[in-house]
Amino acid sequence: MARVSLKAKLKNEKASYDQKGYHAKVGFYQENTIDASASISENKGTNIFSNDYITNTAQRIFENRVINAKVSYNILPDLIVNARYSNAQDKQNVPAYGSHYDTENNEGDLNLKWKFSPNQNVLIGATYTDANYKTNTILKGDQSVDSTGYYLQHQFKNEQFDTQVGVRLEDNERFGDHTVGQAAIRYHFIPNASVYANIGSAFRAPTLNELYSQWGGNENLAPEESTSYEIGSDYDITPNISTNLSIYHTKIKNLITNNAGTNKNIAKANFTGGEAGIKWHQDDLFLSTQYAYVKTENEATELEIAYRPRQTLTVSTGLENATYGISASVIARAKSYADTANTTRVPGYATVDLNAYWNINPNVKVFTNIQNVGDVEYREVLNTYPSNDWYINTGRQASAGVTFRY
Fold first, then answer.
1. For the TonB-dependent receptor-like beta-barrel domain, which residue ranges apply (predicted)?
2. Over the Cα atoms of the chain, what is R_g?
3. Which residues pair with 331 in a beta bridge?
Protein backbone atom coordinates (compact mmCIF):
# COMPACT_ATOMS: atom_id res chain seq x y z
CA MET A 1 0.00 0.00 0.00
CA ALA A 2 1.22 3.52 -0.74
CA ARG A 3 2.43 5.70 2.11
CA VAL A 4 2.41 9.41 2.85
CA SER A 5 5.49 11.34 3.97
CA LEU A 6 5.19 12.85 7.44
CA LYS A 7 7.08 15.93 6.27
CA ALA A 8 4.69 16.34 3.37
CA LYS A 9 1.76 15.88 5.72
CA LEU A 10 3.01 18.65 7.98
CA LYS A 11 3.83 21.06 5.14
CA ASN A 12 0.73 20.64 3.06
CA GLU A 13 -2.36 18.62 3.93
CA LYS A 14 -3.26 18.40 0.23
CA ALA A 15 0.03 16.64 -0.54
CA SER A 16 -1.19 13.34 0.78
CA TYR A 17 -3.23 10.37 -0.36
CA ASP A 18 -6.49 9.54 -2.10
CA GLN A 19 -7.93 6.10 -2.82
CA LYS A 20 -11.21 4.69 -4.12
CA GLY A 21 -12.09 1.11 -4.93
CA TYR A 22 -14.69 -1.60 -5.21
CA HIS A 23 -15.14 -5.35 -4.73
CA ALA A 24 -17.63 -7.65 -6.46
CA LYS A 25 -18.22 -11.39 -6.19
CA VAL A 26 -20.60 -13.85 -7.86
CA GLY A 27 -20.98 -17.55 -7.15
CA PHE A 28 -23.04 -20.72 -7.50
CA TYR A 29 -23.42 -23.52 -4.94
CA GLN A 30 -25.19 -26.86 -5.04
CA GLU A 31 -24.67 -29.10 -2.02
CA ASN A 32 -22.45 -32.14 -2.61
CA THR A 33 -22.08 -31.24 -6.29
CA ILE A 34 -20.45 -27.91 -7.13
CA ASP A 35 -19.20 -24.72 -5.47
CA ALA A 36 -18.00 -22.01 -7.87
CA SER A 37 -17.25 -18.29 -7.51
CA ALA A 38 -15.50 -15.37 -9.18
CA SER A 39 -14.50 -12.04 -7.65
CA ILE A 40 -12.75 -8.81 -8.55
CA SER A 41 -11.28 -6.06 -6.36
CA GLU A 42 -9.83 -2.79 -7.63
CA ASN A 43 -8.31 0.29 -6.01
CA LYS A 44 -7.19 3.49 -7.73
CA GLY A 45 -5.67 6.63 -6.34
CA THR A 46 -2.90 9.19 -6.09
CA ASN A 47 -0.30 9.83 -3.41
CA ILE A 48 2.53 12.32 -3.00
CA PHE A 49 5.55 11.25 -0.99
CA SER A 50 7.38 14.45 -0.02
CA ASN A 51 7.43 18.16 -0.79
CA ASP A 52 11.21 18.43 -0.42
CA TYR A 53 12.30 15.39 -2.47
CA ILE A 54 9.46 14.69 -4.88
CA THR A 55 7.77 18.00 -5.60
CA ASN A 56 4.08 18.64 -5.10
CA THR A 57 3.44 18.02 -8.82
CA ALA A 58 5.23 14.66 -8.82
CA GLN A 59 2.17 12.58 -8.11
CA ARG A 60 2.35 8.81 -7.96
CA ILE A 61 -0.73 7.35 -9.63
CA PHE A 62 -1.51 3.77 -8.65
CA GLU A 63 -4.00 1.10 -9.65
CA ASN A 64 -4.34 -2.32 -8.02
CA ARG A 65 -6.60 -5.11 -9.26
CA VAL A 66 -7.12 -8.70 -8.06
CA ILE A 67 -9.25 -11.29 -9.88
CA ASN A 68 -10.01 -14.69 -8.35
CA ALA A 69 -11.98 -17.60 -9.81
CA LYS A 70 -12.38 -21.03 -8.24
CA VAL A 71 -14.51 -24.14 -8.58
CA SER A 72 -14.91 -27.31 -6.55
CA TYR A 73 -16.70 -30.26 -8.15
CA ASN A 74 -17.65 -33.64 -6.66
CA ILE A 75 -16.76 -36.19 -9.33
CA LEU A 76 -17.84 -38.90 -6.88
CA PRO A 77 -19.11 -38.62 -3.29
CA ASP A 78 -15.55 -39.18 -2.02
CA LEU A 79 -13.59 -37.63 -4.91
CA ILE A 80 -13.41 -33.84 -5.32
CA VAL A 81 -11.51 -31.82 -7.92
CA ASN A 82 -10.60 -28.19 -7.11
CA ALA A 83 -9.34 -25.53 -9.50
CA ARG A 84 -8.34 -21.91 -8.86
CA TYR A 85 -7.03 -19.01 -10.95
CA SER A 86 -5.77 -15.65 -9.66
CA ASN A 87 -4.57 -12.53 -11.44
CA ALA A 88 -3.04 -9.65 -9.47
CA GLN A 89 -1.90 -6.38 -11.05
CA ASP A 90 -0.18 -3.42 -9.41
CA LYS A 91 0.49 -0.41 -11.64
CA GLN A 92 2.30 2.74 -10.52
CA ASN A 93 3.12 5.79 -12.62
CA VAL A 94 5.16 8.90 -11.72
CA PRO A 95 4.50 11.30 -14.64
CA ALA A 96 6.99 13.97 -13.48
CA TYR A 97 9.80 11.40 -13.68
CA GLY A 98 8.49 9.70 -16.81
CA SER A 99 8.71 6.39 -14.95
CA HIS A 100 6.33 3.50 -14.38
CA TYR A 101 6.39 0.33 -12.26
CA ASP A 102 3.96 -2.43 -13.26
CA THR A 103 3.74 -5.90 -11.74
CA GLU A 104 1.43 -8.75 -12.74
CA ASN A 105 1.15 -12.21 -11.20
CA ASN A 106 -0.88 -15.08 -12.65
CA GLU A 107 -1.39 -18.20 -10.58
CA GLY A 108 -3.29 -21.41 -11.25
CA ASP A 109 -3.86 -24.37 -8.93
CA LEU A 110 -5.39 -27.79 -9.64
CA ASN A 111 -5.80 -30.54 -7.05
CA LEU A 112 -7.69 -33.74 -6.36
CA LYS A 113 -8.94 -34.75 -2.89
CA TRP A 114 -9.80 -38.40 -2.22
CA LYS A 115 -11.62 -39.40 0.99
CA PHE A 116 -10.67 -43.06 0.88
CA SER A 117 -12.01 -43.81 4.38
CA PRO A 118 -14.29 -42.09 6.93
CA ASN A 119 -11.21 -40.88 8.83
CA GLN A 120 -8.65 -40.23 6.11
CA ASN A 121 -8.09 -38.27 2.93
CA VAL A 122 -5.24 -37.55 0.57
CA LEU A 123 -4.69 -34.40 -1.49
CA ILE A 124 -2.49 -34.20 -4.58
CA GLY A 125 -2.04 -31.14 -6.77
CA ALA A 126 0.11 -28.63 -8.61
CA THR A 127 0.44 -24.83 -8.67
CA TYR A 128 1.85 -22.70 -11.50
CA THR A 129 2.88 -19.07 -11.00
CA ASP A 130 3.98 -16.56 -13.64
CA ALA A 131 5.30 -13.22 -12.33
CA ASN A 132 6.12 -10.17 -14.49
CA TYR A 133 7.67 -6.78 -13.70
CA LYS A 134 7.81 -3.95 -16.24
CA THR A 135 9.53 -0.61 -15.66
CA ASN A 136 11.73 1.80 -17.57
CA THR A 137 14.18 1.96 -14.63
CA ILE A 138 15.79 -1.50 -15.11
CA LEU A 139 17.77 -3.30 -17.78
CA LYS A 140 15.57 -4.42 -20.70
CA GLY A 141 12.58 -2.87 -18.91
CA ASP A 142 10.91 -6.26 -18.48
CA GLN A 143 11.68 -9.14 -16.11
CA SER A 144 9.71 -12.32 -15.50
CA VAL A 145 9.96 -15.61 -13.63
CA ASP A 146 7.77 -18.69 -13.40
CA SER A 147 7.54 -21.35 -10.73
CA THR A 148 5.75 -24.70 -10.48
CA GLY A 149 4.92 -26.46 -7.24
CA TYR A 150 3.84 -30.09 -6.79
CA TYR A 151 2.34 -31.17 -3.47
CA LEU A 152 0.99 -34.22 -1.65
CA GLN A 153 -0.84 -34.21 1.69
CA HIS A 154 -2.42 -36.83 3.95
CA GLN A 155 -4.90 -36.14 6.78
CA PHE A 156 -6.28 -38.41 9.50
CA LYS A 157 -8.97 -37.58 12.05
CA ASN A 158 -10.84 -39.51 14.75
CA GLU A 159 -12.18 -38.70 18.22
CA GLN A 160 -8.72 -38.56 19.80
CA PHE A 161 -6.18 -37.71 17.11
CA ASP A 162 -5.81 -35.31 14.17
CA THR A 163 -2.71 -35.69 11.99
CA GLN A 164 -1.45 -34.03 8.83
CA VAL A 165 1.67 -34.78 6.80
CA GLY A 166 2.61 -33.01 3.58
CA VAL A 167 5.46 -32.50 1.14
CA ARG A 168 5.94 -29.93 -1.63
CA LEU A 169 8.49 -29.67 -4.45
CA GLU A 170 9.00 -26.14 -5.77
CA ASP A 171 10.63 -25.75 -9.20
CA ASN A 172 11.62 -22.08 -9.55
CA GLU A 173 12.96 -20.85 -12.89
CA ARG A 174 15.68 -18.74 -11.24
CA PHE A 175 16.42 -20.51 -7.97
CA GLY A 176 16.05 -24.18 -8.88
CA ASP A 177 14.33 -27.03 -7.04
CA HIS A 178 13.48 -26.91 -3.33
CA THR A 179 11.61 -29.51 -1.28
CA VAL A 180 9.72 -28.55 1.87
CA GLY A 181 7.50 -30.49 4.24
CA GLN A 182 5.15 -30.26 7.19
CA ALA A 183 3.92 -32.62 9.92
CA ALA A 184 1.32 -31.89 12.61
CA ILE A 185 -0.49 -33.84 15.30
CA ARG A 186 -3.28 -32.92 17.74
CA TYR A 187 -4.35 -35.07 20.71
CA HIS A 188 -7.79 -34.62 22.32
CA PHE A 189 -7.12 -35.98 25.80
CA ILE A 190 -10.63 -34.92 26.94
CA PRO A 191 -13.56 -33.75 24.78
CA ASN A 192 -13.01 -30.06 25.55
CA ALA A 193 -9.20 -29.90 25.57
CA SER A 194 -6.39 -30.75 23.18
CA VAL A 195 -2.67 -30.28 22.67
CA TYR A 196 -0.83 -30.11 19.37
CA ALA A 197 2.63 -29.94 17.80
CA ASN A 198 3.78 -28.79 14.34
CA ILE A 199 7.07 -28.88 12.48
CA GLY A 200 7.53 -27.50 8.99
CA SER A 201 9.99 -26.09 6.49
CA ALA A 202 9.40 -23.32 3.93
CA PHE A 203 10.99 -21.70 0.88
CA ARG A 204 10.33 -18.18 -0.44
CA ALA A 205 11.93 -16.78 -3.57
CA PRO A 206 12.51 -13.00 -3.74
CA THR A 207 9.75 -11.17 -5.58
CA LEU A 208 10.62 -9.31 -8.78
CA ASN A 209 9.88 -6.07 -6.94
CA GLU A 210 12.44 -7.00 -4.25
CA LEU A 211 14.97 -7.82 -6.97
CA TYR A 212 14.50 -4.91 -9.39
CA SER A 213 12.63 -2.02 -7.76
CA GLN A 214 14.31 1.37 -8.15
CA TRP A 215 13.76 1.84 -4.41
CA GLY A 216 15.79 -0.91 -2.74
CA GLY A 217 15.95 -3.57 -5.47
CA ASN A 218 18.85 -6.01 -5.22
CA GLU A 219 19.49 -8.56 -8.00
CA ASN A 220 21.83 -10.54 -5.73
CA LEU A 221 19.17 -11.56 -3.20
CA ALA A 222 19.04 -15.24 -2.24
CA PRO A 223 15.77 -17.07 -1.45
CA GLU A 224 14.59 -17.48 2.14
CA GLU A 225 14.59 -20.96 3.69
CA SER A 226 13.13 -21.65 7.12
CA THR A 227 12.23 -24.33 9.67
CA SER A 228 9.50 -23.80 12.28
CA TYR A 229 8.51 -25.65 15.45
CA GLU A 230 5.30 -25.03 17.41
CA ILE A 231 3.44 -26.56 20.35
CA GLY A 232 0.13 -25.40 21.76
CA SER A 233 -3.16 -26.19 23.44
CA ASP A 234 -6.86 -25.33 23.20
CA TYR A 235 -9.13 -25.63 26.24
CA ASP A 236 -12.84 -24.88 26.63
CA ILE A 237 -13.11 -23.96 30.31
CA THR A 238 -16.91 -23.83 30.09
CA PRO A 239 -19.36 -23.99 27.18
CA ASN A 240 -19.04 -20.17 27.04
CA ILE A 241 -15.32 -19.64 27.63
CA SER A 242 -12.52 -20.95 25.41
CA THR A 243 -8.76 -20.42 25.62
CA ASN A 244 -5.71 -21.02 23.44
CA LEU A 245 -1.98 -20.99 24.11
CA SER A 246 1.01 -21.63 21.84
CA ILE A 247 4.77 -21.12 21.61
CA TYR A 248 6.97 -21.35 18.52
CA HIS A 249 10.51 -21.01 17.21
CA THR A 250 11.48 -20.30 13.60
CA LYS A 251 14.99 -20.38 12.12
CA ILE A 252 15.36 -18.47 8.84
CA LYS A 253 18.27 -18.57 6.43
CA ASN A 254 18.72 -15.53 4.14
CA LEU A 255 15.84 -13.50 5.60
CA ILE A 256 15.02 -10.65 3.19
CA THR A 257 14.95 -7.24 4.91
CA ASN A 258 15.43 -3.60 3.94
CA ASN A 259 18.48 -1.83 5.33
CA ALA A 260 19.40 1.78 4.50
CA GLY A 261 17.10 1.77 1.48
CA THR A 262 18.37 -1.51 -0.02
CA ASN A 263 16.95 -5.03 0.21
CA LYS A 264 19.46 -7.40 1.76
CA ASN A 265 19.69 -10.94 3.13
CA ILE A 266 20.31 -11.65 6.79
CA ALA A 267 22.34 -14.87 6.80
CA LYS A 268 20.66 -16.37 9.88
CA ALA A 269 17.70 -15.06 11.87
CA ASN A 270 15.54 -16.45 14.68
CA PHE A 271 11.95 -15.73 15.63
CA THR A 272 10.81 -16.97 19.06
CA GLY A 273 7.37 -16.19 20.41
CA GLY A 274 3.95 -17.25 21.50
CA GLU A 275 0.27 -16.42 21.54
CA ALA A 276 -2.42 -16.57 24.22
CA GLY A 277 -6.10 -15.87 23.92
CA ILE A 278 -9.44 -16.14 25.67
CA LYS A 279 -12.96 -15.78 24.27
CA TRP A 280 -16.31 -15.48 26.03
CA HIS A 281 -19.72 -15.68 24.37
CA GLN A 282 -23.25 -15.60 25.72
CA ASP A 283 -26.20 -15.74 23.33
CA ASP A 284 -25.42 -13.03 20.73
CA LEU A 285 -22.67 -11.28 22.71
CA PHE A 286 -18.95 -12.02 22.59
CA LEU A 287 -15.69 -10.66 23.98
CA SER A 288 -12.22 -11.90 23.03
CA THR A 289 -8.62 -11.00 23.81
CA GLN A 290 -5.56 -12.20 21.89
CA TYR A 291 -1.96 -11.43 22.86
CA ALA A 292 1.07 -12.17 20.66
CA TYR A 293 4.77 -11.87 21.51
CA VAL A 294 7.78 -12.40 19.23
CA LYS A 295 11.49 -11.87 19.87
CA THR A 296 13.53 -11.55 16.67
CA GLU A 297 17.29 -11.87 16.36
CA ASN A 298 19.98 -11.46 13.75
CA GLU A 299 22.39 -14.23 14.82
CA ALA A 300 25.47 -12.38 13.55
CA THR A 301 24.81 -9.18 15.53
CA GLU A 302 22.39 -10.44 18.23
CA LEU A 303 20.23 -7.39 17.42
CA GLU A 304 16.52 -7.30 16.59
CA ILE A 305 15.09 -7.38 13.06
CA ALA A 306 13.74 -4.01 11.90
CA TYR A 307 9.99 -3.31 11.85
CA ARG A 308 9.06 -6.34 13.98
CA PRO A 309 7.15 -5.17 17.10
CA ARG A 310 7.55 -7.55 20.01
CA GLN A 311 4.00 -7.30 21.29
CA THR A 312 0.54 -7.10 19.74
CA LEU A 313 -2.73 -7.03 21.68
CA THR A 314 -6.18 -7.36 20.09
CA VAL A 315 -9.43 -6.94 22.02
CA SER A 316 -12.72 -7.53 20.18
CA THR A 317 -16.32 -7.31 21.30
CA GLY A 318 -19.69 -7.26 19.64
CA LEU A 319 -23.10 -8.70 19.00
CA GLU A 320 -23.79 -11.19 16.21
CA ASN A 321 -26.80 -13.25 15.20
CA ALA A 322 -28.48 -14.55 12.05
CA THR A 323 -30.06 -11.16 11.29
CA TYR A 324 -27.53 -8.47 12.22
CA GLY A 325 -24.19 -7.90 13.85
CA ILE A 326 -21.83 -5.17 14.97
CA SER A 327 -18.34 -5.51 16.39
CA ALA A 328 -15.33 -3.41 17.35
CA SER A 329 -11.66 -4.32 17.69
CA VAL A 330 -8.86 -2.43 19.41
CA ILE A 331 -5.43 -3.38 18.02
CA ALA A 332 -2.31 -2.20 19.86
CA ARG A 333 1.24 -2.73 18.59
CA ALA A 334 4.39 -2.11 20.62
CA LYS A 335 7.37 -0.07 19.45
CA SER A 336 9.99 -1.62 17.17
CA TYR A 337 13.27 -0.67 15.54
CA ALA A 338 13.55 1.07 12.15
CA ASP A 339 17.12 -0.01 11.36
CA THR A 340 19.41 -3.03 11.65
CA ALA A 341 21.65 -1.17 14.12
CA ASN A 342 18.69 -0.80 16.53
CA THR A 343 19.31 2.93 17.00
CA THR A 344 16.00 4.39 15.77
CA ARG A 345 12.61 3.46 17.20
CA VAL A 346 9.26 3.14 15.44
CA PRO A 347 6.71 4.30 18.06
CA GLY A 348 3.93 1.96 19.09
CA TYR A 349 0.31 2.77 18.32
CA ALA A 350 -3.28 1.59 18.72
CA THR A 351 -6.24 1.71 16.31
CA VAL A 352 -9.94 0.81 16.40
CA ASP A 353 -11.80 -1.06 13.64
CA LEU A 354 -15.59 -1.35 13.25
CA ASN A 355 -17.59 -3.98 11.33
CA ALA A 356 -21.35 -4.35 10.86
CA TYR A 357 -23.80 -6.37 8.77
CA TRP A 358 -27.55 -6.75 8.29
CA ASN A 359 -29.32 -9.64 6.59
CA ILE A 360 -32.32 -7.75 5.19
CA ASN A 361 -33.84 -11.04 4.04
CA PRO A 362 -32.52 -14.52 3.12
CA ASN A 363 -31.32 -13.15 -0.22
CA VAL A 364 -29.84 -9.72 0.60
CA LYS A 365 -27.07 -8.78 3.03
CA VAL A 366 -25.50 -5.34 3.50
CA PHE A 367 -22.23 -4.76 5.35
CA THR A 368 -19.66 -2.11 6.18
CA ASN A 369 -16.09 -2.08 7.52
CA ILE A 370 -14.16 0.90 8.88
CA GLN A 371 -10.46 0.58 9.61
CA ASN A 372 -8.75 3.03 11.96
CA VAL A 373 -11.98 4.75 13.00
CA GLY A 374 -10.13 7.44 14.96
CA ASP A 375 -7.91 8.30 11.97
CA VAL A 376 -4.85 7.69 14.15
CA GLU A 377 -1.61 8.80 12.50
CA TYR A 378 1.41 6.55 13.05
CA ARG A 379 4.86 6.09 11.53
CA GLU A 380 5.49 3.07 9.29
CA VAL A 381 8.85 3.33 7.47
CA LEU A 382 11.92 5.53 7.96
CA ASN A 383 13.22 7.31 4.84
CA THR A 384 16.89 8.37 5.06
CA TYR A 385 17.30 10.14 1.69
CA PRO A 386 17.91 12.99 1.23
CA SER A 387 17.27 13.49 4.95
CA ASN A 388 15.54 11.55 7.70
CA ASP A 389 11.79 11.51 7.21
CA TRP A 390 8.96 9.10 7.99
CA TYR A 391 6.32 7.54 5.79
CA ILE A 392 3.08 7.53 7.73
CA ASN A 393 -0.05 5.43 7.36
CA THR A 394 -2.88 6.30 4.99
CA GLY A 395 -5.44 7.08 7.71
CA ARG A 396 -9.05 5.99 8.04
CA GLN A 397 -10.40 3.59 5.40
CA ALA A 398 -14.04 2.62 4.92
CA SER A 399 -15.86 0.14 2.72
CA ALA A 400 -19.49 -0.90 2.23
CA GLY A 401 -21.17 -3.56 0.16
CA VAL A 402 -24.17 -5.72 -0.54
CA THR A 403 -24.42 -9.49 -1.08
CA PHE A 404 -27.20 -11.08 -3.15
CA ARG A 405 -28.09 -14.78 -2.93
CA TYR A 406 -30.52 -16.57 -5.18
1. 43-373
2. 24
3. 314, 351
DSSP-assigned letter for residue 328: E
Mean pLDDT score of the chain, rounded to an integer?
90
Architecture of domain 4-404: Beta Barrel (2.40)
Give me the phi and psi of 118, to 5 degrees please: -60, -25
Q: Kindly report, residue by residue over 248-257, the tens digit of the pLDDT.
A: 999 999 999 9
Q: Is the dihedral of CA 197, 199, 205, 210 positive or negative?
A: positive
pLDDT of residue 392: 81
pLDDT confidence bin for 296, thresholds 50/70/90: very high
Q: Considering only CA atoms, which of 309, 286, 198, 288 is closest in space to residue 244?
A: 288
Q: Where are the domains of the chain?
A: 4-404
The residue among 47 and 163 whose pLDDT is bigger is 163
Give exposure, 297-328, as e/b (b: 16+ Cβ within 10 Å): bbeeeebbbbbbbbebebbbebebeeeebebe
Residue pair 392/2 in contact (Cβ under 8 Å)? The answer is: no
